């Protein structure tokens, strides 16, 4: 199993964390994660967001906010 995990991590390196999580869920046929907006701040052209992610009832929330580049 650890070999499969290493191979999966190499495939996901360099990807946006949300894309990587969605890809893992699709490959393992898990239910898609639920993203909950906790906080947003900044001007409209450069907003920072903090999301909590629920996957199979398990929450995860990072310690810092992220800037989402949409372009």
From TrEMBL:
It is found in: Nucleus speckle. The keyword Cell cycle applies. GO terms for molecular function: DNA binding; RNA binding. Its main location: nucleus. Residues 16-60 form the DRBM domain. The keyword Phosphoprotein applies. It comes from the Eukaryota. GO terms for biological process: mRNA processing; regulation of cell cycle; regulation of RNA splicing; RNA splicing. Keywords: Acetylation, Cell cycle, DNA-binding, Isopeptide bond, Methylation, mRNA processing, mRNA splicing, Nucleus, Phosphoprotein, Repeat, RNA-binding, Ubl conjugation. GO terms for cellular component: nuclear speck. It holds the Pfam family DND1_DSRM. InterPro entries: dsRBD_dom (IPR014720), SON (IPR032922). This is Protein SON. The gene is SON.
């Amino acid at each position: 199993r650890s070999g499969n995990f290493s191979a999966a991590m190499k495939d996901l390196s360099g990807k946006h964390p949300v894309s990587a999580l969605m890809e893992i869920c699709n490959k393992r046929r898990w239910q898609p994660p639920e993203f909950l907006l906790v906080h947003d701040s900044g001007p409209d052209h450069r907003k920072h967001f903090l999301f909590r992610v629920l996957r199979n009832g398990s929450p995860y929330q990072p310690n810092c906010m992220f800037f989402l580049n949409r372009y």
